[in-house]
Design brief:
With 232 residues, this protein is of the alpha+beta class. It has a single domain, classed as Pnp Oxidase, Chain A. It is 28% helix and 32% strand. It contains six helices and nine strands. The chain is globular.
């Protein structure tokens, strides 16, 4: 009988063999009529999980997806992780350099999607809708709360632009630090908030046997929400 050597693990077969049991919770049919209320409850649970177990590193982390158009007008989706800094009935707000790729993409195609993945709770929330800059006064109010180092960084970085080295990047920061010395750091005109106005929200709760709970909310023409359970 010939001997067959054990199969060496590879990234591919590790992924195929990976199994996770989703047993942490459920999403009942009597979920709130208002998705913002459910979002707030889940956000509170995410912060509580971090405080109690420490295995949910940043409850505010959110994946922002936009659409880029090439020279021929063909769409290309792009995603990156940012931080959610505010939300209310008007929408969900992130802050960025308004000359960045994400901001330019939203200016050209003013729609976006957000994904909040709370892995430790085996939950995720998807948010989709129109996107636009927030009023300057809203950006000013948040800017005033930012740490000084982050304010200086917003001036120093030409976000998404190529730079020769980390040393050059640090030099840009040093120049901005010297420029403002010990005085206040004003908000640059090219920095501010982007709001995604939720038109669709979907809540996903992992369940056993991959038979997950999914509840979607759709905003009606009158501004109210309709609630729908989706098959997994």
């Amino acid at each position: 009988m010939s001997e067959h050597p054990a199969t060496e693990p590879t990234p591919g077969n590790r992924l195929a063999a990976e199994r996770t049991d989703y047993l942490t919770g459920s999403l009942a049919d009597d979920a709130p009529e208002d998705p913002i209320a459910l979002f707030d409850a889940w956000l509170d649970a995410a912060f509580a999980r971090r405080a109690e177990h420490g295995d949910l590193s940043d409850p505010s982390a959110v994946v922002l997806s936009t659409v880029a158009l090439d020279a021929a007008g063909a769409p290309s989706p792009r995603s990156r992780t940012v931080l959610l800094k505010d939300h209310d009935a008007e929408g969900f707000v992130v802050y960025t350099n308004l000359r960045s790729a994400k901001a330019r993409e939203i200016a050209a195609t003013p729609r976006a999607a957000l994904l909040m993945p709370w892995y430790a709770l085996q939950r995720q929330v998807r948010i989709e809708g129109a996107a636009a800059p927030v009023p300057a006064a809203v950006s000013d109010a948040y800017w005033a709360r930012r740490p000084r180092g982050a304010q200086l960084g917003a001036w120093a970085s030409q976000q998404s632009e190529e730079i020769a080295s980390r040393e050059d990047l640090e030099q840009q920061y040093a120049e901005v630090e010297a420029r403002f010395a010990d005085g206040p750091v004003p908000r640059p005109a090219h920095w501010g908030g982007l709001r995604v106005q939720a038109e669709r929200m979907e809540f996903w709760q992992g369940r056993e046997h991959r038979f997950h709970d999914r509840i979607a909310y759709l905003r009606t023409a009158g501004g109210a929400w309709s609630r729908h359970r989706l098959q997994p």
